[in-house]
Amino acid sequence: MVSALFPTYARADLAFERGEGAWLTASDGERYLDFGAGVAVNSLGHGHPHLVGALTAAAAKPWHVSNLFQIPEAERLARRLVQATFADLVFFTNSGAEAVECAIKTARKFHAVEGRPERYRLITFEGAFHGRTLATIAAGGNPKYLDGFGPPTDGFDQAPYGDLEAVRALVGPQTAGVLLEPIQGEGGVRAAPPRFLAGLRELCDAHGLLLIVDEVQTGIGRTGRFLAVEHSGVTPDIAALAKGIGGGFPLGACLATAEAGKGMTVGAHGSTYGGNPLATAVGNAVLDVVLEPGFVERVAGLGVLFRQKLAELEDRHSSIIESVRGEGLMFGLKTRVPNGDFAAAAREAKLLTIPASDNVVRLLPPLIVGENELAEAARRLDAACVKLESAGAAR
User: Fold this and answer.
1) CA Rg, the chain, in Å?
2) What's the pLDDT at 392?
3) pLDDT tier at 1 (50, 70, 90 boundaries)?
4) Cα 329 to Cα 218: distance, rounded to the nearest angstrom
5) What is this structure's pTM?
């Protein structure tokens, strides 16, 4: 059957009917261990009873009323995000790209109300991914995503990731701030070097700039902290969240300090769907679980355990795995074979992974994964490596 969808995705010939925890069951009955989690979205796995209960209860109430009225579920979720983070203010969106767009606008508006409207440019980084809108593809700077969409949206200056001196050289009278992912996800699970974030914070403070973190993929406990930026001890001015915050339901958020967000007054920004009762009911259910004492610490502990297993795989299969990257339950395997071949071999072993740039395969299990499932994933990765080694020897 010919698909009526835009052919913008190279989809695997695989569809799923059921899910439970870290497992998916395909339409042919085969079970897969899901270490992609919908690209870090299904933070609590599939069919989590608390999320299902919250969604079911919310579905019996008004789904949508618009932001012309009070939304108690959104107010509660915003308060909880503020309590859990550096922020004072929250704006809800439907996606990560929209959260980043809001962050960009918040930074520009801050300088405008400060009497510096000429300060609108953000320093971003090579290898970044911030979304697929016209502004966010310009911020990411990847030619593959920019091609065919006309002149890139103005306002972004790129530096090599981790190069503080290159950032310093780009600061000018039009600079509004710095935007980065603490760990680049699509860019190959590349973590910011030690002291880099602290150096950016000092640079921003010295020049009156805003530090913006894109935590769309790294936030909500994914790296063993509620926000990945916490590993550095640095406090940002603005953060963009999405993916794991809704546990599979479309939801994003832009967080800001009161100072950074002071330009976002009535009429400055809006969203028809953002923060509606259905989405924020599910977001609150996610936080019920993630903010439970010990939950994020457990993610960090499982990350240490899984790193050990991945390091053992690297030692045993050095012709296939070049290096292991990541933090918490966000890992990348840089492979010596094409990463698409590795992901396909893992899929044949009934393990789902996510390719990324820099010839990396991402492992992003649900945060509720167990030790036995981590061990099973390692066994399936081992089988994938053996298959690829055999194929290489045959050639």
Assistant:
1) 21
2) 77
3) confident
4) 10
5) 0.97
Contact status, residue 259 vs residue 294, Cβ threshold 8 Å: no
Amino acid at 45: G
CB 210 within 8 A of CB 204: yes
User: Positive or negative CA dihedral for 194, 290, 278, 263?
Assistant: negative
What is the percent of the chain with per-residue pLDDT over 90, rounded to a whole number?
Answer: 98
Amino acid at 182: P
Report in angstroms the alpha-carbon separations of 41 from 110, 226, 244. Answer: 30, 15, 4
CA distance 268 to 257: 17
Section 185-209 average pLDDT: 97
pLDDT in tens, 291-305: 999 999 999 999 999
Does 194 have pLDDT greater than 90? no
CA angle 66, 69, 71 (to 5 degrees): 85
What's the pLDDT tens digit per position in 138-170? Answer: 999 999 999 999 999 999 999 999 999 999 999
Catalytic residues, by residue number, are 129, 214, 243
Over residues 294-345, the pLDDT tens digits come to 999 999 999 999 999 999 999 999 999 999 999 999 999 999 999 999 999 9
The neighbour count for residue 323, using CB atoms within 10 Å, is 14
> At which residue do the structure tokens 């004072």 appear?
88
Stated length of the chain: 395
Return the HEC string of the chain: CCCCCCCCCCCCCCCEEEEEECEEEECCCCEEEECCHHHHCCCCCECCHHHHHHHHHHHCCCCCCCCCCCCHHHHHHHHHHHHHCCCCEEEEECCHHHHHHHHHHHHHHHHHHCCCCCCCEEEEECCCCCCCCHHHHHHHCCHHHHCCCCCCCCCEEEECCCCHHHHHHHCCCCEEEEEECCEECCCCCEECCCCHHHHHHHHHHHHCCEEEEECCCCCCCCCCCCCHHHHHCCCCCEEEECHHHHCCCCCEEEEECCCCCCCCCCCCCCCCCCCCHHHHHHHHHHHHHHCCCCHHHHHHHHHHHHHHHHHHHHHHCCCCEEEEEEECCEEEEEECCCHHHHHHHHHHCCEECEEECCCEEEECCCCCCCHHHHHHHHHHHHHHHHHHHHHHHHC
